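re: ur question from yesterday

yeah so i grabbed the chain u mentioned. its 389 aa long if i counted rite. heres the sequnce exactly as i have it in my notes:
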Amino acid sequence: MLRTYRDVLSHPGAALFSLAAVWSRLPLSMAGLGIVLLVHEQGGSYGEAGIIAAAYVLAAAAFGPLQGRLADRIGQAPVLWTVGAVYAGGIAGFLVAVEQDRPTPWSYACVIVAGMSTPQTGSMVRARWSHAIHDRSQLNTAFSIEAILDEVVFIVGPVLVTFLTLQVSDYSGLAFAAVSALLGSWALAVQRSTAPPAATHHDRRGPSIGWDLLGPMVVVSAALGIVFGSAEVIVAAFTEEQGRKGAAGLVLAVWAAGSLLAGIAVGALPQPAQPLRRLRAALLLLSLLFAPMVFLSSIPWLAAAMFLGGFMISPTLIATVNLIEREVPPSRLTEALTWTTTGMSVGVAPGAALAGSVIDSHGASAGFLVPLVAGLAGSLVAWTTRVQD
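ran it thru and got these structure tokens back, copy pasting raw so excuse formatting
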């Protein structure tokens, strides 16, 4: 297994561009929570903080595909230089607005600018892997590395922003996220030799992106977003019902750890000949594993069930990337991958809201019906999607 990863990371520049992308992705797991914590610490309500954070997330989701298209058309470097600086400026403006108690529109304007310019380096680095690796059998391992690093980002980020905001300074958590985005994006931008080429003048319009496949994959990604968004709320409510609200973070960390371990295992496997089949199986299993959680009544059993469910997250996400990489023209790969990220982002907020409504009416355990149904709906879309052999 170690040799498999070593062979992939030995490609010139691969380890360096993957490391740079990790830093630039930290805001994905830090900024939303950091906004909520900062606004609340400065005397705002959770409702107000949630609305501002939602504006940030929606702006990032809406403009992510445009950023991906620009990276494909003009190259990654100009986009990375620009979004890194604009993102840092947007967050800095928001921090000043909060510190000086500027009118609310100024706060919204700043977070929307930051959201619009959130570096889409997860998609860009996967496009680099696709460009760098000529032995297609190694792509599964490369995409697994990025899935593993995504899990690391989403385990470390929330803990880091909470510690910095609550223990160091109200402003330090978001400030750290902004600096990470700036330096990580620029570190990736200077690595021009590993970036995929920009579209030539003759193919500037680009070939068809293939919405027959990409459309269903965006829907599947939105279903996954509902699963992730709802699960976080349900776990928090469940542990609170059990009188141990602080255990929510531990249960979610166990869930992420299951995904991380699965990602390591999947990375040692060969490139799937039919990634759509793997996606269908992994998503269906992920969905069905929420069914027994409806009947659980203790935190240890919930943690065990979430750990098993986590084992299906990385295989689902990796298979999705494998499928898109195989079916979408290389000149539009970054844009296509960003569309799936957008779909997932769009699903998170409705998932959290729907789970909250079910919990208020029927209790935390009943909330697990939300990810179950959302996952099954996504599975139905995946099972009805067809690709050319």
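noticed a couple things. The CA atoms of residues 198 and 298 lie 53 Å apart. also The chain is about 80% helix and 0% strand.
anyway ttyl
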